Amino acid sequence: MGEGAVVDKGYEGLFRRNIDHGTFWGAPDQLAVFGETAYHDDIRAILTIPCTPHAMRGPLGIARPLECGSFPESVHPPMNRRRFIRSSSLALSLPLLESYRPLRAAEGVAATASVKRLVTIGTYLGFHTPSWFPKTDGQDYEMSPVLSPLEDLRKEFSIFSGLDHRAPNGHKNWKNFLTGKGTPGISFDQIVAKQIGDQSRFAALQVTCGSPGAGQMSYTKEGIALPAIGRPSVLYGKLFSSDSDKARMDYILESNGSALDLVLDEARALKREVSARDAEKLDEYFSSVRDVEKKVQKQRKWLEVPTVEVDFTLPDYDPVAPDLSLECEAIMYDLMALALETDSTRVISLLVPGQGAVFTIDGEKLSAGYHGLSHHGNDSAKISEFNRVGTEHVTAFGGFLRRLNETKDVEGRPILDSTAVLYGSGMGDANTHNNSRLPILLAGGGFKHGAHHAIDRDVETSATPLLGDLYLSIMQAMGVEEERFVKATRNMDDFLL
Amino acid sequence: MKKAILSALTLLVFGNAVARAETSRLPEQVDTFLVEYCLDCHDANSEKGDINLDFLEIDWSDSHATMVWAKAWDMLEGRDMPPEDEKQPSGKERAAVVAWLEGALLENDRPGGTVLRRLSREEYENSVSDILKIRFKVPRSFPADMQYHGFDNSGAGLVLSPPLMAQYLEIATAAADNVLPPPLEQRRVKMETKSIDPDDFTLNFTTGHEIDGVLRMALSSDPLGRGSVWPNRFEAKVAGVYRVKIDLSAFKPGKGHVPVVHLLSRPADGNNFASADDLPLLAEFTVTDDRPKTFKADVELQRGETIVVHYENALLSSDQDKERTYMARIAEQLVDMFRADPELGAAWMKAGYQRSDRGWNWLERIEAIREKGGLDVDGFDPDSPDVQDFAMKMTRQSVNLVETMSCYLFSTGPGIDIHRLAVTGPLRLIEDADEVAQKIMTDRFLGAREGRSDRDYAEAILRSFLDKAFRRPAMDEQVSQYVGIALKHQEAGHRFEDGLHLAVRAALCSPNFLYRGQREGTLDDFDLASRLSYFLTSAPPDGTLWRFASSGDLSNPEVLEAQTRRLLKHNRVKNFLDSFTGQWLDLRLLPDIMPDTRLLNWIDKDLTAVTAETELFVAEILRENHPLKTFIDPDFTYLNKRNAKLYGIEFPNSDTMARVDIEPGGRRGGILTQASVMMATANGVDTQPVLRGVWLLENVLGDPVPEPPSNIPAVEPDTSGATSIRELLERHKEDPSCAGCHLKIDPPGFALENFDPVGRWRDYYPVYEKVGEKVVRKNGLAVDAIGTLHDGTELRDVTDLKRYLVENIDVFGNCLAEKLLVYATGRDLGFGDSKEVERIVEEVREKGNGFQDLIIALVLSESFQTK
Predict the structure, then answer these.
(1) What ipTM was predicted for this assembly?
(2) CA B209, CA B665: separation in Å to the nearest integer?
């Protein structure tokens, strides 16, 4: 074995560790050396999280929160780890300036269904659907037990029963939740991200709670599952980069200037030697480099924008152990809300994992692991415990909705009104793990809400909506001109507008 | 029209700069012929098919015009023009014009003409990996390359745009960070003690049970999530040595059993499905006492790792043994439990297994039965066949059973009790595994300094790096420029490494790195090395090619042939197979096709199987140098149970692809029949002979047809099954403007009609009828695959098409050779190139027509060796 073998081994270890720490942004089979790069054109790369070995320490060479490099006194980082994003008095309004249209607001023109943000949330093990779906439909439906924590918000969302993608069953096909099919394909949140991703720093964020287990929710066009961030400290670090991140970025941008000068010289020398056709081809190079030079100037300007304090404290450990995933979930909702409020991203997907861990709820350990409870076999004791977990999920979700509903944008509208929040699961009946009749709830987004829509799935006519039709309505409201989503070709505007 | 404008523009700007800025005046005979037979349709006014021949001379500096005249030659030579219903020239008239055009084209449209080729995405990844000696992938947001002339590596298609340049610049930083990381921040982590109580552990399923203030463990199943526990709020904040103190006692170990506890390390957010056997062992403790005893160990943990407590020799385990005796073993343990507690046995047998029985709720059901009483305990004989059978039957639910037995053992033992765990640290720091890996990469890039000055050291590093980056020896002036910016950066107050970092960033954005093929005319040895290497490995030249290029021997045909043979055996030839086959046979389209669920339930594994078949098939033809006819009519293929099922072939129940002999000449075998190709040429729902016909003409028969006029709707099958596709197409052909192409397109397309959209054989089209609630598939119209090729060959079905191609193998040979040459050179082939291909195809056929031989002959050709 030569040197290569040793190195490869080191690399593998490194690769694995990277994945474990959520700093990798390529799919596991695509060792990305570089991080997420989908930013607003002008600030592209500001918050890049490279995946280079040194960068495993965090964005741009800064020690990962975990590592405590910047915590001189104690190992309780949060107190010392307040990050600054923009200037304090402007805290939440500044990022929303883009949407500030005083004239229109004065004229009282409501921008109905102009949805700007999309949040998709899926619980891997689904729910006990008889306890999830309301027994009655229409506006005056009776709230179901599992959804009861959302009672005060009932005007803010719609419940759908009987929707699915007519896709295959089983754990492995859970992924059809957002992709609409069992085989690889793009998930609908990523279609939206492609359309509006350039409007914010991160085109999209994928989040989970600790280790996602076998679950995967967001997929690229090539059918590659997007890795989700499971560590709160990593998501936090990604969202709120520190001053030293900026210093490094500024250094790179500045020194890139001399690199570009050098290569432009080279290109000029080359142009004199090549044929006329090749010289024409090289013009692409010149104009591209010039464009990039301009962009660098803008990027450096952005770095001068003053920063503000975000008042948020992480626990001194990352709750990534599977039995702490409910705890992790609550923190992730807070960080997701912060990400939306600061306009760091407009598309978020959250996969709520479901593994075999035994949860402790209200100080009481449940009698079996979460996955075991989901195969409840219609045993009432197990269903009741399974519903306790489900209710926990819904409670945490309710907190998120309430926060979005209470936070106002500059037009005085709740952020929720311009944020479509899809909540549900790729699992229909958790007990048999089938993927039909999915539990689906849509909140916010300026749609008409307040009802339970019971779709009779057994009446298979061309007018029977599929879950994809709901996605089409959401996409169309966001200005995505999709007329087809896998098998769905209509939309559900009749229910929502 | 667009093309014409574009070429006019080219002419305007560069017309006088092009080397072959010559024109040929049309002889009067040719001019008269054009006026008589061609210009009615192909003058500047009509310009049918975007072809205008109304010129008095041919301007060879205009590549579009050259292409048009080559096309005209092709049409006249093949008697495709003038159309049948127009006035026809005499044979003599035609021959004279064909001969003059051929001569003029041969003289003026010489092989060559590739425009600068930017590295494709894949080539870029491989190039950065090779020159920095790292493993490198671009981020997902990296723009994809366009396909042009069927491939994504053509010079004209590889455009450089501002967003891509921005990516290059950004990635250059990340790539340079790999080998020259910024300085580490100093770490200051205080030593601390973390005390972990019994209720601070992660419990999965029944891995542990809190009872009487201890955490009890009774089993050691794999994976980790089924048999181990670990603290849920502890992980090492830094790589270091940590002191572990754990208070353990044995719980009713019973005679002869001495519990052994292993401490293992795992990433805190790692995979729960990992096996305990795969994790590093930190410490082993033998727990002999039933009173708590403190065990200590100093263990090494990497950043982010936590400590797993594993009951190594627990009697109970559901690990899968290779011999699959674990079921018997568990059954035996269950019977042992019954022997010790016959009442339990009697109650359990009465309880049996019910759905949802698992862990505590199963045990509670059993205990309830026991409490009710009335069991025949005396009559319970653990050694009776009934009990033995019962125990074996229970093991069908092995996971649930083991969990339930574990719950029972929590009160009877044997088990271990964890009273407390305390971790103190770091006592001292250790090398971070990530940093060690990093240092290896840095050292490999820099090489030893050996006492050299900064300038000498920088020059040595950068010269070697630039040689590789530019794929030819860097000129002294170039090296000094790069050394210059590196040292200047250092002088400005940065580290030596930062200066190199800057130079590396610059080189990765240099046109000399991003573009290959800069020198006109015959390739020199270094450009030849690059063209060969990117052709067969999608990567820059390796050390051997570099040496032969340096010595100037690579262009020696014998050396070049030997090097080509070497690369064809290299494992990197997989890059060629993936990329070329994926694009030539359109395998890259497959993941986007979702077959109609009424046809079949299609899963990822089916996709893998049909793709693998073609990949393995083409790989073998290359590896074994099989003759070209093997592509069409082989005596083997690769199957697993999935594509075997599609083909209706008996096959063992296995997902492993196996080489299978098949009968030549039949309905199966070869690219005209493989499910992958049949899928790629359909849409997952129905088949369209026109699409498959066009595909065959382009990719197999080498006679591509122009795009259809935009105002003509596609002929789509009548899904009600009332009208046959043939009837629909016949109507289409009544229009003479359609007939020209459709006479060529339809017959080969129809020959494949027996293959449904997923490549299964069918004799009837399906129709779907609703019977009650269900949709039922029934036979509709019979498939009619009959047709007559352009040259009069009658086809009954695909087997006749295969026979035709085997008998006229040069038709396929020419097509494949052109595809290979387009892929290798990154240009659309000109007249000279095409003539060269014809010559090569004949030559190779005479020598046995091997696929490798064809590739070698192409590499040795003037076309390949000319820019």
Answers:
(1) 0.76
(2) 67
